[in-house]
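Lab notebook, bench 4. Still working through the backlog of constructs that have no structural model yet. Next entry is a single chain of 436 residues. Request: give me the structure tokens for it.
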Amino acid sequence: MKNSITALLGASAMTLVASAGFAETLTVATVNNGDMIRMQGLMQAFYEAHPDIQVNWVTLEENALRQQVTTDIATGGGQYDVLTIGTYEVPIWGKQGWLVPLDNLSADYDVDDLLPAVRGALSVDDTLFALPFYGESAMIMYRTDLAEKAGIQMPASPTWTDVKAAAKAMTDKDNEIYGICLRGKAGWGENMALLGAMSNSYGARWFDMDWNPQLDSAEWQETVADYLDLMQNYGPPGASSNGFNENLTLFQQGKCGMWIDATVAAGFVTGPDSTVADSVGFAQFPNKEGVDNHGNWLWAWSLAIPASSQKQDAAKTFIEWATSKEYTELVASEQGWRAAPPGTRSSLYENPDYLADAPFAEMTLESMNAVNTQHPSVQDTPYTGAQFVAIPEFQGIGTDVGQQMSAALAGQKSGEEALAEAQTLTDDAMIDAGYK
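Model written out:
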């Protein structure tokens, strides 16, 4: 009898080892933003529900992530089973056949709950090619205590003139408080996301209807001149190296009077890690006087499955879980509704618990709904997009132009010189690509 029990236990142990041995391991490439880091800390819930799937995370800085996943998918490298990409890449890569179509999601996923603007941005011919983890537009986050101390009142819908006045009034460099923090790190999705949106609010456009670059236009000249004026007079030192994460840290540490950036940051600047959580106000992305365009952007960090993955079923199981209502409720139960991934589902903005805990919810939804990706400039354009131009060549063009803008911010050249070089680089790229 003892030998029989021993044999049975041994067989059970072997079965467990075999089951564990057959677990599929997914390699997921993601960005080092706070919401993605938070998800990695909540994976136990996924493993309990899906013990046959394990996840290996490759967490990268934004520019590095874009470079690596673009190279891998364009070459069919198959290094990753899940990619964290956005509203720029998804429709382009989906049309190329590089992504797995997501047209048979489970009924529990409730795809009709996705915000229409986000769902549309991640679709090709009404077929989803990625699922949104969080969505965002852009807005102003500012220190209400510093504004009160300086005797200023931030309008709900300010102009860039209002922003400059507020930045000047709140700057106190002796105490390391800078009136404004804006992206300066080079990259098409870093400083050019901010400058692209800002240029739209000044009435600029990247190209005319014949695809001639317009970076030498008066509107771009004014955009860059005001950006440099703001940052060089009222911004933090070393701003040419600051992207989203660096400015988030500065704001949370109380060193920024104002920060204009992604709406998703609101949950962090009002969260437990922020030293100024109780003194944060929100306002719309600014517009230039006389220009009826606030230049809002639309972005969704999303999870997609490359066609080169050999583990597509497991990958689909994971991305459904990570972007589900169930995951949102998990975050809320662990860290409060304020921390829930924003900007993807209508039900979140109908949830009274979220609305009560997230003072930025209404401004986020209003900003996202105000975006017109089909007509980003007040002028006619041959392209769509908001803070980017939705053509494959923009990744290289935006990076080149971003390097010029970062160099101007660092004082290595003037804004006029940077724009002249950007104009030449962009013109050459468009000729090489056959647009002209």
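Notes after review: The longest strand covers residues 24-31. The mean pLDDT is 94. Flag for follow-up if needed.
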